[in-house]
Design brief:
Elements lengths: L27 E2 H14 L5 H13 L3 H6 L4 E2 L1 H15 L4 H5 L1 E4 L2 E4 L9 H16 L1 E2 L2 E2 L10 E6 L5 H9 L3 E7 L2 H13 L6 E4 L17 E6 L14 H6 L13 H9 L4 E10 L5 H11 L2 E8 L5 E8 L1
Parallel strand pairs: 7-8, 7-10, 8-9, 10-11
Antiparallel strand pairs: 1-2, 3-4, 5-6, 11-13, 12-13
The structure holds glutamine.
């Protein structure tokens, strides 16, 4: 294990054969440093050790992937090795990469993240792509879906449980006709989302602090029947599964964004009960789900008697990931 501050390139590294020279650090080529970093991460059980070892160096030096390739033969000085291995150690302690770099790309856009928001997942991009198609053409995966005039012209979209704002802000950015509201129960999450809207130049996005639809913004004369699309990635992990999640998730991501209650379906029940009042005629409710929740969520939608055209959609890996329905 390489120690923190004050360590030199080889201190305590697994590569005893390379040793040290009389206690002085030895300069190393970047590719070698990254190889050691990768080994340290792999030993710590980090899933994408090779990728993360490179990402940490890119982050440290402000390089992109091309820049990294150009720098591959670069010789690193002791202080650079130290700074790099400090980052590697932090990641090896299972702090998420994105909490070290402070950012995650989603739909090709940069999103600031911290411990107050769920780190946007690639799985969720699928749902955003479906939403963009729906807003543009009223269809879902090439099939006519929404019908009527619900999706003509400028439309009101609500990202419920917005967290970092990844879903709502990317919709606002990629569909200029969408008027997006982002809502979350967490003041701290909304602070991150507001920062992300500004950083991505989405001035028109509105923010509401609300426990689902509880806030007054969603009631009164203008609060009902307002949205053509309500989209949500609510907390959906079954409570007893939380302990089995990777340390990055369990110890660093907000439980508020993950814990879906005893059966993982708590938020779907509440959203399905409340969303119909806030959807326009032919409006659509679209929600991310866990890979094993499709049937249960479709059943909740059916039972409510308020929805039709209840469909499940898969993500890029073929897992059930989205359920959509139109309000009756
Ligand atoms: N997809 C996330 C995970 O697997 C969970 C997101 C959520 O609960 N909404 O960690």
């Amino acid at each position: 294990r390489i120690s923190g501050a004050g360590s030199r390139c080889f201190h305590g590294s697994a590569r005893g054969e390379q040793g040290r020279e009389g206690g002085r650090g030895v300069s190393l080529a970047l590719k070698e440093v990254i190889r050691i970093g990768e080994q340290m991460l792999a030993d710590a059980g980090v899933a994408d050790a090779a990728i993360d070892a490179k990402e940490l160096y890119c982050y440290m030096e402000g390089l992109d992937r091309t820049g990294l390739m150009m720098a591959w033969q670069r010789i690193l000085q002791d202080n650079q090795c130290e700074a790099y291995f400090k980052l590697v150690e932090e990641r090896a302690s299972r702090v998420p990469l994105q909490h070290i770099t402070g950012t995650q790309e989603f739909m090709g856009l940069p999103f600031a993240v911290n411990g107050d928001v769920l780190i946007p997942r690639q799985d969720t991009e699928t749902m955003v792509e479906d939403a963009l198609e729906l807003l543009k053409s009223g269809s879902l995966r090439g099939q006519e879906y929404a019908g009527g005039k619900a999706f003509r012209g400028s439309v009101e979209v609500l990202d419920l449980c917005c967290g970092s704002g990844a879903i709502g802000i990317s919709i606002a950015k990629l569909d200029k006709d969408a008027k997006v509201t982002c809502a979350d129960v967490s003041t701290k999450a909304l602070a991150v989302a507001k920062k992300n809207a500004a950083a991505n130049g989405c001035k028109g996005v509105k923010f509401v602090e609300s426990d689902l639809f509880a806030a007054s913004d969603f009631h009164g004369r203008f609060g009902k029947g307002k949205y053509q699309l309500i989209i949500s990635n609510p907390p959906y992990i079954r409570h007893d599964v939380i302990d089995t999640l990777e340390p990055e998730v369990r110890a660093h991501e907000p439980m508020l964004a993950l814990d879906g209650g005893a059966d993982g379906l708590e938020f779907y029940r509440r959203i399905i009960a409340e969303a119909p009042d806030h959807l326009k005629k032919n409006g659509v409710l679209m929600m991310e789900i866990g890979y094993d929740q499709k049937d249960a969520v479709k059943e909740l939608l059916r039972e409510s008697g308020r929805f039709e055209k209840i469909v499940g959609l898969t993500d890029l890996t073929g897992k059930d990931r989205i359920v959509a329905a139109t309000v009756i």
